[in-house]
Structure formats: C-alpha cells, structure tokens
Specification:
Length: 128
C-alpha cells in the first residue's frame, strides 16, 4: 500500500492561488494514477481532477478547467494540484487518492470508487 499525505491548503482570498502537494511513501508513485477530490460540508466527495501515471493524461471537472492544473514529479514521489483564480465555491477539504495501474494504462478516472489509497485531506478555504 502507498501512504499519501496532502499539504498546501490554507485560507486564501477569492482570486488567489494555492498549490496542493500529495507526497507518497511506501511505494513508487510512478506505478499509480492519482485523483484529486474535494468534500465541502454537507456535500458528497466530488472528483476534481486526475492524472495518469506518466503525467501525460489529465482530466478536470468542468468547474475547475482553466483554473486548476495537476502535475506530478515521479522522481520526488509527489503529485501537485495548482489552483488559480480560486472561488468561494472551491472551499472544501481536498484529498488525493491513488490506485495502482499497469504500465500500459496511462489514463485516469475521476471516480472515488476507482481509488483504494487515500490521504487525510487538507483544508482549502476561499474567503475575503
């Protein structure tokens, strides 16, 4: 199993930026597709983005397209979510999740059911 730790959350004003990190240990992150999810109070966990094992394939929820960018540095065993032009509705706990994939599978899914390794989450609050 891979262990995941998110960091980089915090309080930011609308229009601001944050970069979340998801650091992995225990396994080589290059063998995993990564998903980013968020959960606001009273809401279900929602898929935001995902990135395939090589970083060549990414997916974004419509509401974050053009504002969020997922990337990864497999040499550092870390995945990132750059979040720009943040809005109040982006406020949530953000989680990264990992699923082991075969070498030939370089895509990803933004469905919580696809992932079996989760971090503890990091709070993002967008407020003036």
């Amino acid at each position: 199993q891979v262990q995941l730790v998110e960091s980089g959350g915090g309080l930011v004003q609308p229009g601001g930026s944050l970069r979340l990190s998801c650091a992995a240990s225990g396994q080589t992150l290059a063998d995993y597709a990564i998903g980013w999810f968020r959960q606001a109070p009273g809401n279900e966990r929602d898929g935001v983005s995902c990135i395939g094992s090589t970083g060549a394939i990414t997916y974004y929820k419509d509401s974050v397209k053009g504002r969020f960018t997922a990337s990864r540095d497999n040499a550092k065993n870390t995945v990132y979510l750059q979040m720009n032009n943040l809005k109040a509705e982006d406020t949530a706990i953000y989680y990264c999740a990992a699923v082991s994939v075969t070498e030939s599978y370089t895509s990803c899914l933004v469905s919580a059911f696809a992932y079996d390794n989760w971090g503890q989450g990091t709070q993002v609050t967008v407020s003036s």
